[in-house]
## 1
Amino acid sequence: MSNQSVIPPWEELLEKSKNKTNVKWEIRAGQTPSNVAISSYFNCHSYEGKPQVLLYRDTNAWCPFCERVWLALEEKQIPFEVELIDLRNKPKWYTDLVPTGLVPAVKIDGELVYESKSILLSLEENFTKHGLLPEDKQEKEIALEMIEACEKGNFSRAGYQFLLGKPLNSTIEDLSEKELIAELQENFETQLNQLEKALEKYPSDYFMRDFGLVDIMYIPSIERLAANLPTFRGYHLLGNEKYPLLNRWLKAMNKRPNYQRIKSDARTHNLVMKNVFKLEPLSQELQVMEDEQENNSQQDRLEAAAKLSDNHENVVQDILKNSGIKSWITDENLEQVEEYINLYMRFLANQLLQNYPIPLADEQLMKNNEIAVIGAVSLSYIRNRVCVPRDLTAGAASQFKEAIDKILKCLYSSAF
Ligand SMILES: N[C@@H](CCC(=O)N[C@@H](CS)C(=O)NCC(=O)O)C(=O)O
C-alpha cells in the first residue's frame, strides 16, 4: 500500500508522542480496561521498590468515593499502585479482605484502610508532606466538621433525589409529579445555599483558606450533578447566577492539573446515568453543557496520540469485535479489513500528533467508498466508546473526539 509515505508506522507515532506527554499509564493486554492510569508521581521521580500505598478502586473509574482518594494521592504526590476491582463480579479475596466489600480501600504499608473519609484522614496522618488540612488548630476543627457534614451526605442526597425525581428514603405522598420535583429542587437549593455560605467564609476560591480535604470530599458529587442535572432535569449548576461562589470554586478546581488528570467529563457521567441507571435524558442530545477543561490542547493531543499508539492492538481488536463491522465482512476479507482499521487508527494518531487543519491521508483511504466505510464505522465507534478518565483524561478525550470529527468530515465530503 502506498500510504506509508503519509502515515508513519506505529513505532514512530508512539515515539514521537509518548516522550512528550506528562501522563503515564500501563497497558493491560487482553483485559478491560486495556490501559490504566498510574500514579503521576512516577512521571517526575525515579522510584525503586514498592510504593507504600496500594489503592483498590473500581475498574471503570466511575466511583465518586474512589475519585476522592485518587485526587488526594495525586495532590499529596504519594506514589501508589492500583488494583482494579470489578464491582459486578467482586473477587472473593476482596470481599474477604474488606468488611464492607466496597471500594475504595487502600493498604498503607500493608495496613488496610477502607471508607473514603477514613482513607483521606489516614493519608494525612501517614504522609505529612503537601498537607490537605489547615495547620491552624481552630481552622482544622472547622475543616473536620465540614468533612463530617459532607460525609453525612445531606448535600448529595438532596442532589440525587432531585435528579432522580424521587425521595430516596422517605415517601412524600399526595403530591403531583410537578409539585414533588419543585419540592426536591427546593431541598437541593437549600443545600446549595449552605455551600455558598460556607464558601464565603475564607478569602480564597476554596472552602478553606487553601485547597484541601473539604474540596476533595465535595468535588465528585458536584462534578456529577453539574453534568447530570442539565441533561436529565434541565437544571444548571454551571453558570447559575444564584451560586457565584460555587461556580468560582468549580473554575478553581478545574484549573488544578491533578484534578484535570483524574476527573471525568459530562458526557461519560451522562452515559453512565443513561446506560447503567436507566435515566431518560430530556432530549436526544445527551450533553447539554460541557464543563470547563483547562486549555492544554497540545499536551492533551499528545496524550491521546500516545495512548492510542501504545494500545493500538487492543483498540483494533475492540473495533473488529464490537463495532458491528464483523457482521458484514467475510472470513476471507477479515485480514484486509483489520489492516484498514489499523491504518485508520494510525491516521487518527498522526492527526492528533500533527493537528493538520485538513487531515492528511492517502487518496485510497479517503476516496474509495468500500474502504472509507470501514474508516467511518471504526472512527464513529471509538468516538462513542471512549470513557473518561478510564481510557483518556477529560482533555485528551475532547481532543480525541475533535480529531475524529475532523477526519469524519473529510471522509464524508470526499468519499460518500
Ligand atoms: N461510604 C463509602 C461508600 C463507598 C461505595 O459506595 N462504593 C461503591 C462504588 S461507588 C461500591 O463499592 N459499590 C459496590 C457494591 O455496592 O457492592 C465510602 O465513602 O468509601
## 2
Amino acid sequence: MSLPVFKLLRPRNIQEAVGHLARHRGDIMILAGGTDLLPSMRQKLFTPGHVMDIRGIEELHGIRVTPGLGVEIGAMTQLSAIEDSEFIRRNYRVLHEAVMTVASPILRNMGTLGGNICLDTRCVWYNQSLQFYTNIGDAHMRLDPNEMLTRVYLPESSAGWKGSYLKLRVRGSIDYPMAGVAVALKKKDGAASEMGRVAITAVNPAPLLVKGAEHALTGKQIDEHVATVVGELAARMSKPLTTSALTPEYRREMVKVFTKRAVLAAAKS
Ligand SMILES: Cc1cc2nc3c(=O)[nH]c(=O)nc-3n(C[C@H](O)[C@H](O)[C@H](O)COP(=O)(O)OP(=O)(O)OC[C@H]3O[C@@H](n4cnc5c(N)ncnc54)[C@H](O)[C@@H]3O)c2cc1C
C-alpha cells in the first residue's frame, strides 16, 4: 500500500514546529519514529496534507537529570534509550520494565516515548491529569491539534519506588498486551511497605488504578495472603472485551495471577 500524497515539513526547533502546527491546524500530523503513523497512513486511516518530521529538533532528544528536581525525558527519546539508561533502571524500575516489554527491539529502536504516549488511542488517558482537567469532558482530554509533546517530567519524589510490571501476550517477543499489571511499592529496606499502588492495562478502555489496593498494601508486610487479596481486587476491576486470541475469562484470571506475582516480585525487589 502506498502512502497518500503530503507535504513534508522539517522544523529545526520547537518554535518553528508549533508555528507549522498553528498554520496547518487540522491538516498536519507529527512524525516521530513513524512505527505507527506510517503504517496507519498507508492504510489511509490518516491522510494529512502535511507531515511534520520532528527528528531534527535537538532539544526533544535525551534524558536529563536535575538533582533535587527529577528527570526529564525528551519526547523524541527512543524507547531503547530509556531501556538502556542505568539511571532509569535504578530509579524508575516500573517504567524501565514496562519499556522493555514494548513491541520488539527493532520497534523500540525506532519508536519514541512521545510517539508511544501520543498514539491516537492513548491521548485521552494520558491527558486526564486531575491537576489540569476535572469533569470537563473528553474534548479537553486530548492534545489540541496545535499542541505537541516536548518532554515527560518524572519528579524526584517518585524515584526509588520498588516495583514490577508484567504483561500477558500471545507472542512474548512482540505482541500488544492482552493484560498488563504494574505494581509500585515505596518501602524502606526490609520494612513493611510505606505505600503501594497497582494499575492494570489492556483490560478496560483505559488503564486504571486498582481500587482498594493502596489500602491493602500500605503499612503491610507483603506476603502471599496480601498478594492474593490484591490480585482479587485487580481481577474484579478487569472488564476485558472479547478478542479472537484469548477469552475474557482467561484474561481476567490472568490479571489475578499476574497481580499476585507482581506484588510478590515488587516486595522482593
Ligand atoms: C507490532 C507492534 C507491537 C507493539 N506493541 C506495543 C506494546 O506492547 N506496548 C506499547 O505500549 N506499544 C506497543 N506498540 C506501539 C509502539 O510502541 C508505537 O508504535 C511507538 O511507540 C510509536 O512511537 P513512534 O515514535 O514510532 O510514533 P509515530 O508513529 O511517529 O507517532 C505516533 C502518533 O503520535 C503522534 N506524535 C508523535 N510524537 C508526538 C509529539 N511529540 N507530540 C504530539 N504527537 C506526537 C503522531 O502524530 C502519531 O499520531 C506496538 C507497535 C507494533 C507495530
